[in-house]
UniProtKB/TrEMBL annotation, chain A:
Keyword field contains Manganese: no
Protein name, as recorded: ABC transporter permease subunit
Topology relative to the membrane: Multi-pass membrane protein
Keyword annotations: Cell membrane, Membrane, Transmembrane, Transmembrane helix, Transport
TrEMBL record, chain B:
Source lineage: Bacteria, Pseudomonadati, Pseudomonadota, Alphaproteobacteria, Rhodobacterales
UniProt-recorded name of the protein: ABC transporter permease subunit
GO-annotated biological processes: transmembrane transport
Origin: domain of life: Bacteria
Gene3D superfamilies membership: MetI-like
GO cellular component, one term: plasma membrane
Length: 273, 296
């Protein structure tokens, strides 16, 4: 019964144009032959070639990838544990402090998180490098993971876990065989979120990295401070392409998985009830 | 035992890597700058025993905070950060509300795609999204080329490296945070209420102001906080799009630490920024809680 409205069509068109035109221009001009970034001089893949020759960028990309994989994996384990504690562990002393520490990093300005971690690392005499970036990224991204996972834990039927325990599973087996498969989509999206947060982070990495480890955002930031460059346009295009493919795939996969899972859950509840 | 382990591991991690660093910042904000490594005094030394501890605490003072109030750079930076954050939050609301409204009114089969289109930029690198505006807003950039070509202006506008560019950057990067909560509120809205309002003699515009806006209030509040809170401490946007006269506290903190190497002052700047942020954070949480209670 919804009527077509010119107002809505216009606001959606303008809104999405605003969101996407900057990125589309960036992508188009990464194929520009000219070094002048705002003058079109024909199609060329020259900047991609130069990018692949640039040792410094490749090294930084490699460091970034290692940090992202390590920190998001540790953060997923810790964040899932934290979510489980928040939703299932009931009361324990210091629970308020615990939930405060889970939520506070989500709203903490990055400059403060970065500064405080740096002061800690210097205080305990830990040399800054890839390890300190991993520790820093794990700390803030585990909080995001725990928020994502706990929203799934809250919504799922607890009687399934109880049934597993009644049927003789140990608590760990019940978690592994019942809970984990059900919350898996949330755990995976938590991991993906942690991974992209780590790939993306400039501020915290700048504070916690040392001369031995430079990540891609740090490299990009110091390059673009001097102005727009066609090499950075090429690099941005590659990153946008990877993210787009990943997000679209992930959303299809998770949609199918969640549809299937809801059906299974319903069937299980019906069978037990 | 297992339960203890489950609680203890994430708890200990957050204590060591979140809470303790914070206490260190607080402590250094009360210390004095010194030409040593680390560049502040006093340092905590347990070998001095009780007397050493006492000497340590008596050496802490509020000097850095007095310094922040005496130098007008700092309070101007706080004020201008709050102002920039407020202004860009309102701009984001202005831009985001019609988009959320259009999405909520769209046909059902379109909505997942529209949602995806809003979420996709959020996953794309923040740094790249800010950077993409540098080529648009610069003096020989695409916006100026376009406006000169249409004949609206005859001289290129100077936008990059001004506060205007900072507003554009904040609105652009945080727009999804504004759209999504408003969309969530509008989607739940019962269309029969609008029909009732129209039957009772409201014009469509009146019905919008009297029914739609009040019922999406929670989404508007949530969206505003989600934009305001990160915008206040923003560093990347003012340093790439803003100019030398753009004062934002995140940038001041960064420069104090990296350029001036004044750790105590940088820590004091951080402590005050957090004290300012606590107000909107508490208000935001209260709003969320009220909403949850209303839903139950």
């Amino acid at each position: 019964m919804r009527r077509f409205s010119w107002f809505n069509a216009t606001s959606l068109t303008l809104g999405f144009a605003f969101l996407y035109i900057p990125m589309i221009i960036l992508i188009l001009y990464s194929f520009n032959a000219s070094k002048l970034v705002t003058v079109w001089a024909g199609f060329s893949t020259r900047w991609y070639g130069e990018l692949l020759q640039n040792e410094a960028f490749l090294n930084a990309a490699w460091v970034t990838l290692k940090v992202a994989v390590a920190s998001s994996t540790i953060a997923t384990v810790l964040g899932t544990m934290a979510a489980y504690v928040m939703v299932r562990a009931g009361r324990f002393s210091g629970r308020t402090l615990f939930s405060g520490m889970i939520y506070a990093p989500l709203v903490m300005p990055e400059v403060i998180t970065g500064l405080s971690l740096l002061l800690l690392f210097i205080g305990i005499g830990l040399d800054r490098g890839i390890v300190t970036i991993i520790l820093a990224h794990t700390t803030f991204s585990m909080c995001y993971v725990s928020v994502v996972v706990s929203s799934r834990l809250v919504s799922f039927d607890r009687s399934l876990e109880e049934a597993a325990l009644d049927l003789g599973c140990s608590p760990f087996e019940a978690f592994r065989l019942v809970t984990l498969p059900i919350i898996a989509p949330a755990v995976i999206s938590g991991w993906l979120l942690a991974f992209t947060l780590s790939l993306d982070d400039l501020v915290i990495a700048s504070f916690t990295s040392g001369p031995s480890a430079t990540t891609l955002p740090i490299k990009i930031f110091s390059a673009v401070r001097l102005g727009v460059s066609p090499e950075i346009n090429a690099l941005s295009t590659i990153m946008i392409a990877i993210v787009t493919v990943a997000v679209i795939t992930a959303s299809f996969v998770s949609k199918r998985a969640s549809v299937r899972q809801q059906a299974e859950e319903k069937a299980a509840v019906r069978a037990t009830g | 035992m297992r339960r203890f382990f489950l609680i203890a591991v994430p708890y200990a991690w957050l204590l060591v890597l979140f809470l303790i660093p914070f206490v260190i910042v607080l402590k250094i904000s009360l210390s004095d700058t010194a030409l040593s490594i680390p560049p502040y005094t006093p340092t905590l030394d347990f070998s001095g025993g009780w007397a050493g501890l006492k000497a340590f605490f008596s050496a802490l003072d509020l000097e850095n905070f007095w310094f922040l109030t005496s130098d007008d750079l700092y309070w101007k930076a706080y004020l201008s950060s709050v102002w920039i954050a407020v202004a860009s939050t309102l701009l984001a609301l202005f831009v985001g509300y019609p988009i959320a409204y259009g999405m909520a009114q769209a046909r059902d089969e379109w909505r997942p795609t529209l949602m995806m289109l809003v979420i996709l930029p959020f996953w794309t690198s923040f740094l790249i999204r800010v950077y993409s505006w540098m080529g648009i807003l610069s003096q020989e950039g695409f916006l100026n080329q376009f406006l000169l070509w249409t004949g609206i202006i005859s001289e290129p506008l100077i936008i990059l490296n001004t506060n205007t560019a900072v507003y554009v950057g904040i609105v652009y990067t945080y727009l999804p945070f504004m759209i999504l909560p408003i969309y969530a509120a509008l989607e739940k809205l019962d269309a029969s209420l609008l029909e009732a309002a129209e039957d009772l003699g409201c014009s469509r515009i009146q019905a919008f102001w009297l029914v739609t806006v009040p019922l999406s209030k929670n989404g508007i509040i949530a969206g505003c906080f989600l934009v305001f809170i990160p915008a206040l401490g923003e560093f990347v946007i003012p340093s790439l799009l803003g100019g030398s006269q753009t004062l934002m506290i995140g940038k001041v903190l960064w420069e104090e630490f990296f350029n001036n190497r004044d750790w105590p002052v940088a820590s004091a700047v951080a402590v005050i920024l957090l004290m300012i942020l606590i107000i909107p954070i508490i208000l935001f949480q209260r709003n969320e809680q009220k909403q949850r209670e209303a839903e139950q």
